[in-house]
Amino acid sequence: MEKLEMEAPDSSLVDKAKKPISKRLNKYERVFQPCLAEVLGTMFFVLIGCVSVIENTPAAGRLQPALVHGLAVAVLVAVMDRISGSHFNPPFTVAVCLCGGLELAMVAPYLVSQLVGGVLGAGMAKLMTSPERFSNASGAAFDLLRSESQLYRALFGEAAMTCLVTLVVLMVAVNSRTKTPFGPFLVGSTVMFNILAGADISGACMNPARAFGPALIANHWTYHWVYWVGPITGGAVAAALVRLVLGDQKLRIVLKS
């Protein structure tokens, strides 16, 4: 992993074959620009994702949110990759850091940037949509959970789906043996089919920033903790899998000989 203070973050999802124009970055490019990219990337992802839910129709079902979230991830990852690594998701940031792809000092600024971006995106979605549709969709906050029995299925679903998408991120961005220029497409596709598969179980959030922004704007907090505990657990499990089993010799901390 290339060091943040010297080079562009290597937690990116795009081919590293082309060298950056300048290897040395100033303080703005090392610290502030990546955080701004995380704010803007998360903001637009949450904006587009929320509007797709608020404006969804019964005929479209889960297909519309799945396509919109997946395609938005793919595009935003591709365009912001060389600036911040295109995390836009707290579990991704934590997992990339655990795998050596981001300096520990940058974790808190990234997480704050993502939450701020989530709130801004949700606020923009409220301004964009009619009050009636916004209210009917609970502002695109996750409001599927109604019972204790459903709660634990949703918690497991969020952990499992986030583990999968985080594993894809780590394998295409951090693990040297499996890096690929198709990273944005692979991550976006994983988000898409997770939503198609699990939207009716938990909403397939997989991103606390995506959950927090709409919850704050719509003041909807029912079982909100599920969308933190599940994704963070899934991201940590994915990092452990890479560190212990799937990573190359540089990443693996066991079985190196």
From TrEMBL:
Signal peptide (residue range): none
Keywords linked to the UniProt accession: Membrane, Transmembrane, Transmembrane helix, Transport
Membrane topology summary: Multi-pass membrane protein
Name the record gives this protein: Aquaporin 8b
Localisation per UniProt entry: Membrane
Similarity annotation: Belongs to the MIP/aquaporin (TC 1.A.8) family.
Transmembrane stretches, start-end: 31-54, 60-80, 92-112, 151-173, 185-205, 225-246
GO CC aspect terms: plasma membrane
Transport keyword on record: yes
A Pfam short name: MIP
InterPro entries: Aquaporin-like, Aquaporin_8, Aquaporin_transptr, MIP
Molecular functions (GO terms): water channel activity
